[in-house]
């Protein structure tokens, strides 16, 4: 432990002092970043995840076949011209998987934003304002936990109003709808956690001091309380990505997920579930990509959690 | 404590009413259950209005809901409405599905909990050992896989094993693994045969459920155990010269049990609502499968019946989680 974590700004060191002073104080985020980059599994996860994102969004567009190219020969085994083989209408699986991964990642990002955003705002409101706001939000959380997510999903996919609202151009964007309802049905645990943290933080002296200085509620919540929950927020947002990818796959499997012309890794797997024994690559390649996304994100989340935890002993800052 | 429990139950009643109404409204948004039937072949207006009157769909949403609620509180959960499977009572179907799901879920949940706690505790006590890394890696891999893929792979493995068993023994009755739900007429034959059938029917869905649940529990148990092991009173106990086993089990473990008890009870409440994927893949007609089927067939009363019974369990196990928490940690007061 060579560094000093100081909440107050260090006074500029005098020239004489700096001769003897071999250590400089690191900012808190520098300490966290250092801890994160010393966490081998997390850094590995980060590299894999960035590589997957680049592959999905760039690899697909520079690849020699487009996802619209069909009749390239049915069920060509992986290798040579088609590294991932071809499917039952002669589509190039590499192009398909890249496009599926694009959609899966887009969905996951939207879900992470919605679930974290909703969870943080509602949780903070409930925890800080207490009283009837808290009662209302807590009952709303209970309600969302009781309503089956599948019913919400089915209602949202069939509602013509939402289909119109999420249209981009002439094409419906079914993936956005899927992202919306996964987001709307998975913010509750974040909200509960944040609510609990805010409930205890609002009683702390520094919040009382801010209140005594006349800071408005908005400032107290956003400047004083929420920064203290940033670790939970970031870790949850990261893990939400992994959960969303898996949830989307499960929904596609029971027919309530993404639908053609949009696609996703989950949809690719479910479309090829009967090819399992005869043409296994059609099932296993998208499967491996789902596992890679989710595994790398889980490792990143774990590394972040450790990096944010001041009690962590093993990874020296 | 008693007053707390009563109050919690009373609070949840209006919540259930709102939830049931919302659920009913959502099923209406999903579509008209008679829509497809109308388009199958030309129907006379009289035929159509008769069908709508029979299902109650000639009335607007609110009266329909009130009508359902009136019957529901008297124990009549309504009937299925779509032609083709019209007139089936909802209540017995839901109760059947509930038993099917419980048989599957209770056993696998217990196995997952025991395995998870065991691996979590060992992982925490021997932190950063090979065992810990192995268990962590395995747990991460398990919950990074889509459950339906695990299920499909298991199912396929089961079929391969069956083929192998049949080719070795040359007898089709030796196909051990069942991939299409529990036998309809129960288990038959001598005790040996019954065990054979029982394990064959349960093994795959149980492995499937355990694999994910145990990964979750082991991570939770490891985290909470580490948290406790790093506390001062544990160091004090070690400094006094108490044996490591005694410190781990007597001093640390009891406190590390608190978070996992809560998680397990919440999880259990949610699982009673159906293990959708596992039931679908392995052909168990439990709550989850029934829900998916009812949603696809647009059966409003079936969906509502399932939702209400699931909701009661979610509320109940939420309450159990809180009471258990207060019971295990005397510092927490419920009032």
UniProtKB/TrEMBL annotation, chain A:
Keywords carried by this UniProt record: Cell inner membrane, Cell membrane, Membrane, Peptide transport, Protein transport, Transmembrane, Transmembrane helix, Transport
GO BP annotation list: peptide transport; protein transport; transmembrane transport
Membrane-spanning intervals of the chain: 41-63, 103-128, 140-163, 175-194, 233-258, 278-301
Topology class, membrane: Multi-pass membrane protein
Boundaries of every ABC transmembrane type-1 domain copy: 101-301
Chain positions covered by the region annotation Disordered: 1-21
GO cellular component, one term: plasma membrane
Compartments where found: Cell inner membrane; Cell membrane
Major site of localization recorded for this protein: membrane
Pfam family, one: BPD_transp_1
Family from the record: Belongs to the binding-protein-dependent transport system permease family. OppBC subfamily.
Record protein name field: Oligopeptide transport system permease protein OppC
Provenance organism: Solihabitans fulvus
TrEMBL record, chain B:
Protein localization: Cell membrane
Transmembrane segments annotated in the record for this chain: 104-125, 137-154, 195-217, 256-282, 302-328
Gene Ontology BP terms: transmembrane transport
Coiled coil segments of this chain: none
Alphabetical list of SUPFAM superfamilies matching this protein: MetI-like
Membrane topology value: Multi-pass membrane protein
Domain of life: Bacteria
Primary location: membrane
PROSITE patterns, A to Z: ABC_TM1
Alphabetical UniProt keywords: Cell membrane, Membrane, Transmembrane, Transmembrane helix, Transport
Domain named ABC transmembrane type-1: residues: 98-325
Record GO cellular component, one term: plasma membrane
Family to which the UniProt record says this protein belongs: Belongs to the binding-protein-dependent transport system permease family.
PANTHER family for this protein: DIPEPTIDE TRANSPORT SYSTEM PERMEASE PROTEIN DPPB-RELATED
Protein's name in the database: ABC transporter permease
Species, as recorded: Solihabitans fulvus
